[in-house]
Amino acid sequence: MYFIQTLVNGLLLGGYYALIGIGMTMILGIVKLTNLAHGEFVIIGAYMAAVVTSALGIDPILSLVITVPLMFLIGFVLQYVLIGNAMKKGPEPALLVTFGLSIIIMDALRLIFTVNEQSISTPYSTKTFTVLGINISVLNLVLFAISIVSILLLTMFLSRSYVGRAIRATADDAEAAALSGVNIKKVYAIAMGVSMASAAVAGLCIGMKSTFNPTSGGAYLSTAFVVVVIGGMGSIPGTLIAGIVFGLAQVIGGASYGQLISYVMLLLVLVIRPRGILGK
Amino acid sequence: MKRIIALLIISVMVLSLAACGAAQDGATADSKTKSSDKIKIGYVNPTTGALAGNGEGCDWVVKQLTDYVKEHPITVDGKEKEIEVIVYDSESDQNKCSEMAQKLCEEDEIDLMIAIQTPNTVIPVAQVAERYGVPCIATQSPVDPLAHSLDEFNWTYDFFYALDEVYESQRALWTVAGYAPGSGAKVGLLFANDSDGTAWHDLFTRRLAEDGYTVVDPGQYPSGTTDFTNVAETFKNEEIDVIAGTNIPPDFKNSYSAIIAAGVQVGAVTMGKCALLQSDVNALGDLADGIMTQVWWAPTNPYVSDLTGISCSEIDEKYQEDNGTIMPQPAAFAYAGLELAIQTFIAAGTTDKQKVYDTIGTLKCQTIVGPVDYSKKMEGLPYSSSVLTGGQWQRDENGELQLIIIDNSLYPDIPLTGEYKEGNATTAN
After folding, report:
1. Which of A9, A28, A118, B182 is the most exposed place for a label (fewest CB within 10 A)?
2. B225 touches chain A (CB under 8 A)
3. Partner-chain residue, chosen from A9, A81, A212, that has the shortest CB–CB distance to B2
4. Could you report the average pLDDT of every consecutive run of 10 residues in chain B (429 residues)?
5. Main-chain dihedrals φ then ψ at residue B414, nearest 5 degrees
6. Which of B4, B194, B230 to mutate to test the interface with A (most CBs of A within 10 A)?
7. Which residues from A are below 8 Å from B55, CB to CB?
8. Measured over all CA atoms, what is the biggest interatomic distance in chain A, rounded to whole angstroms?
């Protein structure tokens, strides 16, 4: 029974990790940019969700109706105006811009929200139910459902919409896509917008599951990196698989050795399959 | 146009970073111009970063005491002098702590160092003070980790509790909840594998066994762990009665949620760190209801500062007036640290470093956080124990979480503010 309980917990946790990595994989795979501010973007999402939830007195999940479009817009403008121009000078200036952004965001959050820990409370945060002797946390199940729905929506967007196809074409060969009439700058901005939108969802989940403060982003950046490298850059199904593998490793290793096992696994993937599980 | 906007944004970024640097350098320039007419006290504070909650209120405290000395100058080396407290941000980073402390000793030529706010700050700052031969008043860091960090201390005095005392404080809380020593109660441990968690873990494991408790130790874990399934299963299988530990808020939220999800029910939860600050407890919400913790300072404590004559309730009122929140416990210790520095110079009447250091050891006075008497020693470190009571977070009639003092068995002079209330988040469902 303990084994099944472990598997269920690992699976539920996997969706949460995948969600943290999705935004990062999009930017690495499509824009070919190492976004060092991704952790801070996620934390902005958490603060936005907290503010909207408390201001409107609604269920935290409903806050996504406001935070997702808002974060998309911020991502679009950031890429179009700032990061995109830095990328013209090469990958290093763009990397530095994202590093600078992470510091500015951290300090801005500190000025606005103070350094105090925050979280997003839900009526179901401590509720559990039992199925066939397996305890299931309602919160973990809700977070898993949010992750799966987000990943499905994103996959559908990328495979069925014109913009999605343009994004995939750009990811495969930006030059060829440009020759076919795709506006690369705009595509990159949309990709950053989608990445920020997914960061909004990830931020909400982090806020509900844990506590956060303006400096919490760094830890989530490293989680995102691990998930993206294991799953393969740019692969959304790969990120989901990597999230689940990462979650299972955490649970099987237990609280004491979970992180160690996860990072040993990362090293093994880098040695055996450097492109990641589903990387091209 | 786009280029202009991009340039503007980059300029703002550069100016912001430059402003940060200028703010830091500003303190140095100011300190250099006034080197002779002021007593210089160095202070490394975690103003930003993960420990920033502990560093809250530093500026307010510094202003209170520099203003006090402005009105009541200290006679040192035959001249009336004010104090200048040079504060640098450690960014909650141990390397930065050492760097800033070195800057204070080398460039600012301080007369005394305050090492404060958790072992992460205190240990590196005190070590630099030892290296440069600068008298150092350490506080708000348990004695044990600092005492174990060097073989001998020639310039440092610590003013806080030893871990044995915090164990006794938590034991008193378990007793209040019905789990006295010898009751055979099973105590489940929740400790991260950082230096603080390890120091607590080792001591608690030994003392619990000595007191006849059954220790249920699921193992320590790295801070930042998100899954605690095996910990929860261990606690469930062992049917523990008490949870004891010290954790930062995210670790506590993740572990405690997993324990509740596994259906574990306990009669008492005692926790350090995350149950200290009102803001952290508010972030934990319902999980914090009923949690017990050791209390270093409360506005209801009966102490009056020998230096300024202000009482605990008066300083809290003043803090609330200026900042809108209850005075955090670490801010009270920041006040006490500076009180001790000023008392030292008043008593020494000189800035001669050896005489200043010798004077710290002779201080016997009352601060806002209680009496000081550096007569104890742990390994090579002389220290004075600070007071400890036991508190429980309880919801008031408005639903707000309030820290109620429910046990004063270690320091009966400190008044209780309420009674123990049964129940916590594990028994709420």
Report:
1. B182
2. yes
3. A81
4. 45 44 41 65 88 88 96 92 94 90 95 92 95 96 91 95 94 96 94 87 95 95 88 94 94 93 93 90 92 96 97 97 93 97 96 96 96 95 96 93 95 96 88
5. -85, 125
6. B230
7. 115
8. 59
Asked if B219's CB is within 8 angstroms of A254's CB, the reply is: yes
Chain B residue with CA closest to A105: the answer is B13
Q: Are B392 and B290 in contact (CB under 8 A)?
A: yes
> B202, B167, B154, B161: which is closest to B381 by C-alpha?
B154
The three-state secondary structure class of B18 is helix
pTM attached to this predicted model:
0.84
CB contact under 8 A, B226 and A250: yes
Q: Rounded CA gap, B159 and B116, in Å?
A: 10
Distance of CA A19 to the CA centre of its chain: 4
Collapsed DSSP state (helix, strand, coil) of residue A174:
helix
Q: Do A255 and B224 touch (CB under 8 A)?
A: no
Residues 165-184, chain A: which have Cβ within 8 Å of B? none
The alpha carbons of chain B give a radius of gyration, in whole angstroms, of 23
Asked if B138 and B146 count as a contact pair (C-beta separation under 8 A), the reply is: yes
- Segment among A20-34, A58-72, A118-132, B128-142 with least mean pLDDT: A118-132
Answer whether A227's CB lies under 8 Å from B190's CB: no
pLDDT of residue B101: 96
What are the CA-CA distances from residue A267 to residues A36, A238, A254, A260 (Å)? Answer: 21, 17, 19, 11
**Of the candidates A131, A165, A144, A152, which has an alpha carbon nearest to the alpha carbon of residue A243?**
A144
DSSP conformational letter for B412: T
Q: pLDDT digit string (tens) for A189-207?
A: 999 999 999 999 999 999 9
pLDDT digits (tens, 9 = 90+) for A155-185: 999 888 998 899 888 888 888 888 888 889 9
**Cα–Cα distance, B82 to B74 (Å, whole number):** 6
| Mean pLDDT value across residues A242-253 | 88
Q: Which CATH number fits domain A2-120+138-272: 2.40.30, 1.10.3470, 1.10.8, 2.40.128?
A: 1.10.3470
Query: Amino acid identity, residue A165?
Result: R
Q: What is the DSSP string of B32-71?
A: HHTTTTEEEEEEEE--SSTTHHHHTTHHHHHHHHHHHHHH
Question: What pLDDT, on a 0 to 100 scale, did the predictor assign at position B7?
Answer: 43
B-proximal residues of A, 180-239, CB under 8 Å: 209-213, 215-216, 219
Q: How many Cβ atoms are within 10 Å of B251's Cβ, its own excluded? A: 28
User: Are A81 and B5 inside 8 Å of each other by CB?
Assistant: yes
Q: Which long-range CB contacts under 8 A does B324-329 form with residues at least 24 apart? A: B325/B278, B325/B279, B326/B278, B326/B299, B327/B57, B327/B299, B328/B53, B328/B56, B328/B57, B328/B277, B328/B278, B329/B276, B329/B277, B329/B295, B329/B296, B329/B297, B329/B298
- B319: distance to nearest CA of chain A, Å? 17
Q: Does A3 touch chain B (CB under 8 A)?
A: no
pLDDT of amino acid B36: 61
Q: Which helix (H) or strand (E) holds B230?
A: helix B229-238
Order of strands across the sheet that contains B214-216? B214-216, B186-191, B242-247, B268-273, B292-295, B389-395, B401-407
Residue pair B115/B93 in contact (Cβ under 8 Å)? The answer is: no
Please report the ipTM that was assigned to this predicted complex. Answer: 0.81
Which residues lie below 8 Å from residue B339, measured CB to CB, with a gap of 6+? B65, B305, B306, B307, B308, B367, B368
Whether A118 has a pLDDT exceeding 50, the answer reads: yes
Q: Which residue of B has its CA nearest to A211?
A: B250
For position B15, what pLDDT does the model report?
41
Give me the amino acid identity at B77.
D
CA distance A109 to chain B (A): 11
The predicted structure's pLDDT at residue B23: 40
